[in-house]
Amino acid sequence: MRRWRRLASAAWSAPSDPQFYGDLEVDASALLAYQQQAKEVGTPVTVTALVGRAVAHGLSEVPELHNPSRIRSGEPTSDVFFIVATEGALSGLKLSDVAGKSAVEVSEELAEEARRVRQGDGPLDRATRTLAALPLPLRRLVLRAGSWMASDLGIDLPALGVARRPFGDAMISSVGMWGVRNAYSPLAAYYRVPLLVLVGGIAPTPVAVDGEVVVRPVLRLTATFDHRYVDGWHAARFAACVADYVGDPGRLEPAAVRAAANVAR
In sequence order, what are the beta bridge partners of 214? Predict the structure, then answer.
């Protein structure tokens, strides 16, 4: 059995967790234009990185989304965990303070860290190997206790190879690269994050604009929310913030980036 499947067998139990789902379709014209502008000046940026910035913007604008333990400790941040597909398994990486970085910085850091993950040198590789070697009952116990200590208490666990709050404040996975436009994913209990966003593909889609049907590039995002931390009101505010960023990424980039862009013009 692969290490990931051994880990999954300890993570999942009967489906009783309080989760709810939502999807958002947004006109990606501005997003693609921003991506093209970045490419023309030699700083390519991926759609996943741009969505990461949008999610971080939502976390900053709706701080109630954070795990209550982080709010109490005064640490509501915008750390985002990106799921990465590797050979025969899933892994990932956490980028810190995504709201404070430009989309280009996020894209560059994401590419570099994803390369490390695919080489087997990712931040969770040691933990996965350690847990997969344990018998199932012990694996389940260690996984859940370690999750509580690392995520809720914010404790580093060097013996397991797990850093504090390993999954950040939200998770992102791209399914658009596989040609999938719409998909949902469950939240495992050990993630300890309020939401997981799936990035679908961008496709030409008929939409109504000023009473007329036109074709626009539409990006579909789907999200799974943990109902212990998030309700519909929070989710609606978060969705509005994400749509706001996608509608004009340049306007919501960090102040230093906007200033540099103005000088370039």
Answer: 207
CA-to-CA separations, 160 to 19, 134, 149, 157, 249, in angstroms, rounded:
28, 12, 12, 6, 39
CATH topology of domain 21-124+166-254: Chloramphenicol Acetyltransferase (3.30.559)
Task: Tell me the pLDDT of the chain averaged across its residues.
Answer: 85
Per-residue confidence band for 4, with pLDDT thresholds at 50, 70 and 90: low
pLDDT digits (tens, 9 = 90+) for 78-99: 999 999 877 767 789 999 999 9
At CA 79, angle to CA 76 and CA 85, rounded to 5?
A: 150
Instruction: Please report, for the chain, the start and end positions of each structural domain, with discontinuous segments joined by +.
Output: 21-124+166-254
Q: Whole-prediction pTM value?
A: 0.85
Evaluate whether 205 touches 42 at the Cβ level (below 8 Å): no
Average confidence (pLDDT) over 144-152: 88
Q: In what order do the strands lie in the sheet with 19-27?
A: 19-27, 212-226, 195-209, 170-174, 80-86, 89-95
Q: What is the DSSP code (8-state) at residue 165?
A: S
DSSP letters along 43-63, please?
----HHHHHHHHHHHHHHH-G
Predicted confidence (pLDDT) per residue in 211-220, tens digit: 999 999 999 9
How many Cα neighbours within 13 Å face the side chain of 15?
A: 4
What count of Cα atoms within 13 Å lies in the side-chain half-sphere of residue 242? 27
Which residues neighbour 119 within 8 Å (Cβ) at sequence distance 6 or greater?
none
Q: Residue 66 half-sphere exposure, CB side, CA atoms within 13 Å? A: 24
